[in-house]
Design goal:
7 strands
Length: 263
């Protein structure tokens, strides 16, 4: 089915891809609940679109102690919620060639933010989505680096590869249910994600965010489950080929395993 969900919770909506997708969703007719850490940006989003179409909730996804309260607040205040869009993420360069300089706490925190916390949120919101009598969706922002890792950002690449594996299993185990599991693979996009390189450099690398949003929306509206935008130079279309071969192998192995595993 097309992407025609009416009330979308977008986690990680205060910058970059998340902010651009939040704007696009409102323009396409959805009511958007923007979630992020920066209250001033949440307020600006609501002011921009009006309180009838937009709202903002401040929450840091790394606040595990507050997770249950956050989820309960959302499903109570917005019982018509039919789509959860998980977009939060961080990225840093790490020199594994200098192991004595590697901050292990920071390494594991990056993986936790990009992977563990999205697992937490998806598991907590899924029961609400699956109970609804209408089609619902759970959307994740991944990356092309889930297929081909980037050597300078190993924690980010590893976390997104893990996220892709989790999403494939989540989708297959819930394929008979009404919640659609969607994954978006952006290329390098001009956002704040790469500010560690300096804002002048990082925010001018890759695909303009508006171009990315337009191309992503085309595939969302077409009902795609895995949305691949752009390519990794010089790999070209190899990412799409890898993703298709991997998915075919996964489905074949899943057919065997699920014959002996009760869902």
């Amino acid at each position: 089915m097309a992407f025609n969900y009416k009330r979308v919770l977008l986690v990680g909506a205060t910058s970059g891809i998340g902010a651009a997708m939040a704007d696009r969703l409102v323009l396409e007719g959805a009511n958007v609940i923007a979630v992020g850490r920066r209250q001033e940006r949440l307020d600006a989003f609501v002011e921009k679109h009006g309180s009838e179409k937009a709202s903002g909730v401040r929450y840091d996804i790394n606040d595990r102690a507050g997770l249950d309260a956050f989820v309960e607040k959302i499903v109570t205040e917005y019982p018509d919620l039919d789509c959860v869009f998980l977009n939060s993420g961080v990225q840093h360069q790490i020199r594994l060639s200098r192991p004595e300089e590697v901050d292990l706490d920071a390494f594991h925190q990056e993986i936790s933010t990009n992977f563990n916390r999205l697992v937490d949120l998806s598991i907590k919101f899924l029961p609400h989505l699956q109970k609804k009598p209408v089609p619902t969706a759970l959307v994740f922002t991944g990356t092309l680096l889930a297929a081909v890792p980037a050597v300078a950002v190993p924690a980010y690449s590893a976390s997104k590869a893990a996220l892709n594996t989790y999403i494939m299993c989540l989708r297959r185990q819930n394929q008979e249910k009404s919640t659609k599991i969607i994954e978006i693979w952006p290329p390098l996009v001009q956002t704040e994600l790469h500010d560690y390189m300096g804002a002048e450099v990082g925010r001018n690398m890759g695909m303009p965010v508006q171009e990315f949003t337009d191309k992503t929306w085309e595939q969302l509206a077409a009902g795609s489950e895995l949305i691949i935008v752009g390519a990794i130079p010089p790999a070209g279309n190899v990412v799409k080929e890898l993703a298709e071969k991997r998915r075919n192998a996964f489905e074949a192995m899943s057919n065997i395993m699920l014959a002996h595993f009760q869902l």
